[in-house]
Specification:
The structure is a homodimer.
Chain A lengths: L2 H10 L6 H9 L1 E6 L4 E3 L7 E7 L2 E6 L5 E7 L4 E2 L2 H6 L6 E4 L3 E7 H10 L1 H27 L2 H11 L2 H5 L2 H8 L3 H8 L2
Antiparallel strand pairs in A: 1-8, 2-7, 3-6, 3-8, 4-5, 4-7
The first copy, chain A, binds a DNA duplex (30 and 30 nucleotides) through helix 9.
DNA sequence: CGTAAAATGTGATGTACATCACGCAATCGT
DNA sequence: ACGATTGCGTGATGTACATCACATTTTACG
């Protein structure tokens, strides 16, 4: 499926755009290819864009003072990724984004998103709903972190996204779950 | 300050409404008073509303199978609270909301919010931005849970919301931080 | 293809926290 | 005002997980 069709189908789930509106909407995106391991946003960058994943898997992550990595999100096809705090406030990136596999993404400038949102009511509607879902998912994950032990969180993740098991190195899954790679290894090799 | 003025000032930070639009917007809210300890949303409820806090402190929380409570949010004046998952999807509440102190809130039906969003572009704009901020805050908290120990999280919370120390019982602060009340007690009585 | 680098498995040890148990202090409701 | 409830402090003990150390396996790539 072509980039345009993927995006169209994605939008259509929450908003109704005319053909002309969608053409205009789509014209604001830029197709980009990344190699495995390539950085999309690095800590300290000025963040000007957000990214819609067409193919491949990205990760958004934070590295603390001890060089330990924590993964906020695996972004799979039809997911969006950026450092939204930096993008909205104009501050520098504290969260980084890079490619776990080679990837195809559509890139949208924050300024263009705001322009589109103000020009086309349904686009604003779409982005409101997209963020709603992210907000709810983040709270669900907060509860999971506070409530469940590592094994339970691991099983939940594998039940929801079994493809991660084969497509993503285990130490990254550990960094997402908030456990050490050793502990994760012991969870499924008891 | 009156309810209307508080809400007006709150909205004005992110959206521009004409006087007529704001009157219409405000007319969809219903003022409600709650006593200390009173429930706003209970697990299992059909959730039809969200709540804008004028005065007092609410909490949104989850209780697990072992009857242990986890707090997702303390909602202080000008904050919003609900079970957004249930409100958006029509499912039953898994998250509850109640009042830590006596409280005054403005109550908005989900259906009315959607109507307002579709009728007034700037209202949709406002709600998009409100959720944006919540999304960013939730991710910040995820990182804090994964990255920092209990003492660090406690100090961050007290630095940002010192009023919680005096206004909210310690065991609720513990339930927000994701530690036992005993551990929290030992953090500030070393 | 062959070597370096990255990813994974596994034991030994340490630790931040939970849990249990109890006593005391503050607050609430009638 | 006074008993009941709720909140708080503190010791003793248990445990899930981190960390360190090193071996083994898999993958990347010149």
């Amino acid at each position: 499926m072509q980039a345009k069709e993927i995006l169209k189908a994605h939008i259509a789930k929450t908003a109704t755009l005319t053909a002309d509106e969608f053409e205009y909407f789509f014209s604001c995106f830029k197709l980009q290819s990344y190699k495995k391991g390539q950085a999309v946003i690095s800590e300290g960058d000025r963040v000007q864009h957000e990214y819609f994943v067409l193919d491949g898997i990205l990760k958004t992550f934070y590295i603390n003072d001890d060089m330990k990595m924590f993964i906020l999100q695996f972004a799979m096809p039809t997911w969006w990724a950026s450092d939204y705090n930096a993008l909205y406030t104009g501050s520098k990136a504290t969260v980084s984004v890079d490619c776990i596999t080679k990837a195809e993404v559509l890139c949208l400038a924050g300024a263009d998103r705001e322009k589109l949102c103000s020009e086309i009511h349904q686009v604003e509607h779409f982005f409101r709903w997209r963020t709603n879902r992210g907000y709810v998912a983040a709270h669900k994950r907060l509860l999971s972190l506070m409530n469940s032990d590592a094994k339970h969180r691991y099983e939940e993740l594998m039940a929801q996204y079994p493809e991660l098991f084969s497509q993503v190195p285990k130490h990254l899954i550990a960094a997402y779950l908030g456990v050490s790679r050793e502990t994760l290894s012991r969870l499924y090799n008891p």
